[in-house]
Each structure stands twice: as structure tokens, then as C-alpha cells.
Amino acid sequence: MPLTTERTSLPFARHRRLRRTPALRRLVSETRLDPASFVLPVFVDARLVAPEPIASLPGHMRWPASRVSEIAARAAASGVGGLLLFGLPADKDERGSGAWDPAGPVPAALRALRERETPLVLIADVCLCEYTSHGHCGVLDGERVDNDETLPLLADAAAAYARAGADAVAPSDMMDGRVAAIRAALDAQGGTDIAILSYAAKFASAYYGPFREAAECAPSFGDRAGYQMDPPNGREALREMRSDLDEGADALMVKPAGPYLDVIAAARARFDVPLAAYQVSGEYASLHAAAERGWIDLRRAALESLTAIARAGADVIITYFALDAADWLAR
Q1: Any domain includes 160
Q2: Structural domain boundaries enclosing 187
Q3: 92 tagged catalytic
Q4: What's the rounded Cα separation, in Å, for the pair 90 and 49?
Q5: What digits encode the pLDDT tens for the residues 304-327?
Q6: 0.85 cut: is pTM over it?
Q7: Is residue 202 annotated as part of the catalytic site, yes or no?
Q8: Annotated catalytic residue: which of 255, 277, 313, 314?
Q9: Which of 133, 172, 190, 299 holds its CA 20 to 30 A away from the CA of 212?
């Protein structure tokens, strides 16, 4: 027998009242996902004449520039806000000269999308890793990436993308001074209205593996820890962001997103510019792998992960789930 059957007289809050039904939960939701805040990464391959599946990124393709409008049309119909374009050139060299080739894959895709008046924000990733024969993000001096020699090449690439129709360029190389060099190059050719979305806090992460397969940009030796950020350093990330803003960045990015929610939240508290977070290939692929084994529900886990990124403070979420999430949210 219980000692008493009387209801406790101690006061307590009934938080569950507003969780009782789906309608109540939707009404009082503090964080809401909007497909207009999603950006879809797209790989444009100069060697292809038809889309080719990417094994490590289920549901994604490498696209020829001549057909990239197909994925753009699907994104626009789903209400997605923009595309982030990466290029795979026909040929690579030590300096990554394909990155600023006006006939390269990203400029060709941008021109094709502009001709169709695609109603999306078109963002061009700026880096040399997809274009260099060694897979590093800049010019080499021996086995060291030469920061200052790389800057004018990044600026040339950004200028080429702006001329082809990019709304924004997104330097992801993590060279010091790249934002200032790119801003100067854009302004010099009359591109004062082209925005810079800086990968300001890009960490040397283990989560990039599927992307490196998709973009064929794994370094042929060593790693990128000498220029990408060291994962333990959150305060340093804020210094990187401050520097990029001082050099002329219009918006900031944290990459990866999920393992660095604390950095997103700290950046949101510190800076009042638009803040993007990149849910990277390894985050996407690991959720798919777990779902394929029946360990998680893909839809619920994906939306939960995106909600966490938004709750941490991201205004823009770059994600391989963009199309799926937009469809799920519409149901």
C-alpha cells in the first residue's frame, strides 16, 4: 500500500500543456525551418554530358553545365533559396588555373542559369582545391601552401564568377587576407554589388570525406590542418570572423555545422550580419548510412539536425538535404 493516496500539495508547472497536440506544438514552436533559408550544393563537371550519381552522397549528382538548369528548376519549385556551385574542370595543374577560366564549369553553369532567369541566389565557391593537381587550396612552395601567392589567384577566380553572373562568391580556402583581395578585385571590375559570403570559420574536419570524393579534391599529400582551423579553437573562430568582416565580407559561415553549434551560437551573439552554416557531406552521409541500417528515421533525424542549426543562430543553412527537407516541410 502506498503511504498516501493524496495528491501532492507542492506546486509545480505543467509544461506539458503546450505539447499535448501537434497543432499546439506547431503554434508555440520557437524555431521554424524555412526552405527559403536553404542553399543546395551543386557539383558542375566539365567532363560530363549527362548527370552522374555521386556514390558517397545518396540522391546527388555531378551535373554538366548544359543541364544544371534541371536541378535549379527543382530547387526553385521546392522554395529553396539558393545554389552553391562547385566546379570539376576538364584538366588540372599545379596552380589551379581552371578556377578562373571563363569557359570553366562554374562560369558556364552561371551563364546557363542566368539565361534561364533562374529565381535563386547563385553563389560560387572560391577555392583552388578542385582545380589543382595536388589537391591543396593554394599554390605550393615545396609542400607548404604559400598564402600570399595564392591570394591573386583566388581574386581572379572570384572576378570570373562575378562576370559570369554570380550573386555572391564564397571563399573557402582559408588563406589570410583573401576577403580583402577578392573585394578589391570585384570592385576594380565594377562588381561593387557582388556579395562575399566568407567561409570565415572553416575547421579541419573529418566530416569532409564524401565531398572530397564528389569534387575529386583530396590532397595528394599531407592535410589541410595548416590553413583550416583547429577544431578545439572556438575563440579563434570569432577572431577569424572579425578579420573577414573588417576586410569586406558581407556574411559569415561556420563549417561544419553540427559539430560546431557552439561556434554558431557565439557568432550569432557577437555579430549582426547574416550567418550561414554548412551541414557538410559527412553529416549528410552519416545520417543516410544510419537510416539505411534501420538505426534512425532519416526524415526525423535530418529535420532535427537542421532545426538544431537554426536554433543555434544560423540564418542560412547550406545542406545536401535542401530538396528533401523542403518537400518534408511542405507536407
Answers
A1: yes
A2: 33-251
A3: no
A4: 12
A5: 999 999 999 999 999 999 999 999
A6: yes
A7: yes
A8: 255
A9: 299
